């Protein structure tokens, strides 16, 4: 006896269900197709949402982990002092404090002249990586050049550049910064902070290991520095990323909602098919009841039919959804394997479960209707 | 009626309400059958024969009166209990066979046991099909069988749970004389060897010869036709 046959022995409703479905293959196929489409719609729209979110998060980079502290000019504060920086350092639990001086300068390299933003940063290594040369933890001499500026001026490590009147050796070219950042270095030059002949800082950036830590730091700094007067303005993007995450959550729910509509339509199709087929089989069901098959067993049999349609539809829907996910992630994120991210597997599983549940629910009414007809009635023609 | 009856109707009425009219399909029917008895129910079309058979087979409930199965009142059983009684005690043979087209002969025979986890059902089914001469047709679907063969599958199905009562509506109606006789021989065998009560509705005079007793149903009223010897007795005195 084969495994399938044993299964049929164990669950006779399944045997009857399979036979009944194969009676009108086209009709059963079309009903299953509805479920396939519904499952595919839910799963692939869910995965589409994930892909969008991943893409957007990549764009945003670590923005949520940074806060920016600037003096509040409206209240007459033009610079942050060494004491302010020390206070910030003291209240920062986790994260690196990066005080920054800033000016614009005329950059000269041979014949080329251009206006560039110059940042004075003591520890640029805390914020940036170099694609060429290095971004040192302590920048004592030389200059780091942003990627687009370096490209424009064809600068390489070892070249010399002049900022206003001062000459610097290029010690590193910074990596291209893709994400949105509070301090975009792509078109700027970073020099040792001591090369500025001024005191105080134009801003302080705190880079934390996580969004939560950044938020905690922001709160602590606000408490410390803005205790008596509004000395500083604190700009944090954590709330923005949170908002963006929330937005994608809503978008996903919306997309899945749209997908669910197609599943509801599929459910109606199954309801229709099951109703038709039970009406056609009225007499047969009457015979079953007459020879001693219980009402509940008839219900089980018809629910098994509906469930089988849902299972088959869900199975093929899931396969198609995986294929769709592979294509989508290849095209949008160039990484097809992202399809198998846990969230996506959850969406697929959810869609299949929805598909089966929808089918069984749709079978409920026809099953109940067919089983509760009295056999004498159904056997009369 | 006698205490030995396996099935019994007492004062049974069946009324059908259609609009304002009430149709009385059975009028105060009293009937009993004993184990090992072959009773033929005869009567014109529309006289209530199928209705009576349905009441006997616990497929339908009377509007009034009592049905007893093996001495106990089964008139007011729940649907579930009636279904169980039908399964255990009663074998039905329908006029139109009513086989399930998607199932093979053996599966059709097994249908009454299908949901019961009955490990010996398959063997009993094969044995029954062999007994009705269909040992070679076990895996055939109904559309691959002739009318007589279908009827024999239906008979095997009725016997799968070793019923004590066999109810047949026109069991020979769709069969030629020869096949009909085979079926009737089988009924006789069952009643003699297994003490089954056979109750058959018929128009067939051939069946009449096999029956122990014939009752007539005319317009819902049941009358005993009497055995030939009783008849002569009546006319003799
Ligand atoms: N569900 C029903 N509703 C209304 N009337 C019914 C119903 N079932 C049977 N009848 C009526 O009851 C009467 C008896 O019907 P029944 O089927 O028992 O006749 P029968 O003797 O079996 O006839 P036949 O020999 O043609 O099969 C008929 O007049 C029929 O129209
Ligand atoms: Mg009839």
Account of the 3D structure:
The complex is a heterodimer of chains A (381) and B (237). In chain A, 56% of the residues lie in helices and 17% in strands. Chain A has 381 residues and is α+β, with helices and mostly antiparallel strands. A 6-stranded mixed barrel of chain A has the order 2-3-8-5-7-6. In chain A, β2 (96-109) and β3 form a beta hairpin. The two termini of chain A are 39 Å apart. The model of chain A has no long low-confidence stretch (mean pLDDT 88). With 237 residues, chain B is an alpha/beta fold. Chain B has one domain (35-60, 76-235): P-loop containing nucleotide triphosphate hydrolases (Rossmann fold). Chain B contains 8 helices and 10 strands. In chain B, the strands form 2 sheets. Chain B has a 6-stranded mixed β-sheet with strand order 6-7-8-3-9-10, sandwiched between helices. The two termini of chain B are 25 Å apart. The A-B interface holds A 12-13, 16, 19-20, 22-23, 283-284, 286-295, 297, 374-376, 379 and B 54, 57, 59-60, 79-80, 83-84, 86-88, 92, 94, 98, 100-103, 111-112, 114-115, 157-158, 161. The complex binds adenosine-5'-triphosphate and magnesium ion (MG). Magnesium ion binds next to α1 of chain B.
Q: Which descriptors apply to this entry?
A:
heterodimer, A: 381 residues, alpha+beta, 2 domains, 6-stranded mixed barrel, 10 strands, elongated, B: 237 residues, alpha/beta, Rossmann fold, 6-stranded mixed β-sheet, 4-stranded antiparallel β-sheet, globular, disordered C terminus, binds adenosine-5'-triphosphate, binds magnesium ion, ABC transporter involved in lipoprotein release, permease component (chain A)
């Amino acid at each position: 006896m084969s495994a399938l046959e044993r299964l049929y022995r164990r669950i006779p409703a399944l045997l009857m269900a399979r036979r009944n479905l194969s009676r009108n293959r086209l009709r059963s196929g079309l009903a299953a197709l509805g479920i396939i489409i519904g499952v595919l719609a839910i799963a692939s729209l869910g995965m589409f949402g994930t892909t969008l979110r991943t893409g957007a998060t990549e764009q945003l980079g670590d923005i949520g982990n940074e806060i920016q502290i600037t003096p509040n000019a409206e209240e007459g504060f033009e610079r942050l002092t060494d004491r302010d920086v020390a206070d910030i350092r003291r209240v920062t639990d986790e994260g690196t404090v990066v005080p920054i001086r800033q000016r614009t300068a005329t950059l000269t390299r041979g014949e080329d002249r251009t206006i560039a933003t110059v940042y004075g940063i003591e520890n640029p290594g805390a914020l940036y990586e170099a694609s060429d040369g290095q971004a040192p933890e302590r920048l004592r001499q030389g200059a780091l050049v942003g990627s687009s500026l370096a490209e424009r001026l064809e600068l390489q490590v070892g070249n010399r550049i002049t900022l206003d009147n001062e000459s610097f050796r290029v010690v590193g070219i910074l990596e291209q910064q893709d994400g949105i950042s509070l301090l975009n270095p792509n078109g700027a030059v970073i020099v040792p902070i001591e090369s500025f002949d001024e005191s105080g800082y134009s801003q302080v950036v705190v880079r934390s290991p996580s969004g939560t830590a950044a938020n905690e730091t922001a709160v602590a700094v606000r408490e410390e520095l803005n205790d008596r007067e509004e000395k500083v303005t604190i700009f944090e993007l954590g709330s923005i990323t949170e908002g963006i995450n929330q937005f994608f959550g809503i978008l996903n729910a919306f997309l899945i909602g749209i997908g669910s509509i197609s599943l509801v339509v599929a459910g109606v199709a199954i309801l229709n098919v099951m109703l038709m087929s039970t009406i056609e089989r009225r007499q047969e069901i009457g015979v079953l009841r007459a020879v001693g098959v219980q009402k509940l067993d008839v219900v089980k049999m018809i629910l098994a039919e509906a469930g089988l349609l849902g299972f088959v539809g869900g199975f093929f829907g899931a396969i198609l959804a995986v294929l769709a996910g592979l294509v989508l992630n290849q095209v949008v994120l160039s990484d097809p394997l992202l399809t198998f991210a846990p969230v996506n597997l959850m969406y697929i599983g959810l869609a299949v479960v929805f598909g089966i549940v929808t089918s069984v629910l749709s079978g409920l009414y026809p099953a109940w209707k067919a089983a509760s007809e009295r056999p004498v009635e159904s056997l009369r023609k | 009626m006698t205490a030995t009856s396996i099935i019994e109707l007492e004062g049974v009425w069946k009324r059908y309400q259609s609009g304002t009219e009430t149709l009385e399909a059975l009028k105060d029917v009293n009937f009993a059958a004993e184990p090992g008895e072959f009773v033929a129910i005869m009567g014109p079309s529309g006289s209530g024969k199928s209705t009576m058979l349905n009441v006997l087979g616990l497929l339908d409930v009377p509007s009034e009166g009592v049905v007893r199965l093996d001495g106990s009142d089964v008139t007011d059983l729940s649907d579930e209990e009636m279904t169980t009684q039908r399964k255990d005690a009663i074998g039905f043979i329908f006029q139109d066979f009513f086989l399930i087209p998607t199932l093979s002969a053996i599966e059709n025979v097994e249908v009454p046991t299908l949901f019961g986890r009955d490990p010996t059902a398959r063997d009993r089914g094969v044995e029954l099909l062999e007994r009705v001469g269909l040992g070679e047709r076990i895996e055939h679907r109904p559309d691959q069988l002739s009318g007589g063969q279908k009827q024999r599958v239906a008979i095997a199905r009725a016997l799968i749970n070793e019923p004590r009562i066999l109810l047949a509506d026109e069991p020979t109606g769709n069969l030629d004389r020869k096949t009909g006789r085979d079926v009737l021989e089988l009924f006789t065998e069952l009643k003699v060897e297994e003490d089954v009560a056979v109750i058959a509705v018929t128009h067939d005079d051939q069946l009449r010869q096999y029956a122990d007793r014939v009752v007539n149903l005319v317009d819902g009223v049941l009358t005993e036709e009497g055995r030939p010897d009783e008849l002569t007795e009546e006319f003799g005195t």
